[in-house]
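Supplementary notes (optional reading)

For those who missed the lab, this is the record we used. Protein: DNA-3-methyladenine glycosylase II. Length: 487 residues.
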Amino acid sequence: MHEDFERCVRAVQAKDARFDGWFFTAVLTTRIYCRASCPVVPPKPENMTFYPSAAAAQEAGFRACKRCRPDASPGSPQWNERADLVARAMRLIADGVVDTDGVSGLAARLGYSVRQVERHVRAELGAGPLSLARAQRAQTARLLIETTGLSMIDVSLAAGFGSVRTFNDTVREVFALSPTELRARVRTAPATAPGTLNLRLPYRKPLFPDNLFGHLVATGVPGVEEWRDGAYRRTLRLPHGPAVVALKPGDGHIGCRLTLSDLRDLSTAISRCRRLLDLDADPVAVDDALAADKLLGPLVGAAPGRRVPRTVDGDEFAVRAVLGQQVSTAAARTHAARLVVAHGEPVDDPEGGLTHVFPDAAALAEIDPESLAMPQSRKRTLLGLVAELNDGELDLGAGSDWQRARERLHALPGFGPWTVESIAMRSLGDPDAFLPTDLGVKVAAKGLGLTPAEFASHAERWRPWRAYAVQHLWATGDHPINRLPAA
């Protein structure tokens, strides 16, 4: 979009927050870059230039606006709408892969050469993977500077900088302030336990939280997830250790309280929470497309801004999807809770009732099949999935190839369309994943006056947003997944 000069100018002059994260406005006279909705008086069009990423603006010598904080914009929705190389790379960069494995590790995960990844990413984002990761580290550093009392040495290490000097230089270059000056600009943060941070996760309005949080809570695994004091809480498995997060809906943001065992995991934890709640979506674009259908339009109008509840761990959700085959929600939660107690990693949660991190594929690979209280056919399905995940043959992570993952899943015993598309929707994050065989979806379609023969062809009108259409169809039923839990 940054190449459409007139459209970008109109968005800046209108201070349209829908375009925050889509592009960044650089002001030639002040050498500052902003988000589209920056509250200051817009510059003259002849003094504007536009960049596709904050990293590209930084590479061109612009520094971040102190008023609108463009580095904290919601992410561009296109990275979660697409399955091509650049989109996969951007999801992995947000997940911290460059910081932990370098650009070579990123390229290996994507199955391309370093040169190919560099070329494609730079062509679309105006900056290479290292610069994009550097911009992310700068944002993480700012969060730690402003929300914790950590020493600057600890902040630099936690944000992923190789040295304090690099940390100081980057903060000055990006924010035009030293780390000490940046901390002095904010009020003293409320005292919290070591490793605990209180953050705000922005999103594009509107957001309809009922089905989003209702689904997560209604299907939550005891010991791993809970609803407490008006917040959804769960444990996370992160590269450097476990964590606990509490997410609470607010006006224009999601309140996020993170308790990390290692602060180096901050940016990865934020990325996974945003992915879980689909916070980088463009709800106006989705709603406009679905509302054009005369049957779905009234449902969209009644609840604009529905998001697709996703997951913080693709492998975890896939295992839970198998456990939920042909059983009730309550039975699926019971099966999952047994696995958690027997094979999950214990965590200490002084604030609530969270006890474990969901077991990873390596731990589940050690399961004794006789200990599983389920039919033999489902045992084979579960163990086949776990073997594929543990061997690395099946990738359901942020940078996965959606089509290849579907093909691998279909080849496994016991995987029908419902299970595969559920995993595509929640684990892979495909916005067009669709569940025509789901009972709730079929009942809703009948209620809209669609016969089974008409339903499949009619649903083609909802592409590429059929996963969002499913949320609206589910909402026609009386189920806890459609309601925000009581505080």
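If you only remember one thing from this example: The two ends are 41 Å apart (CA to CA).
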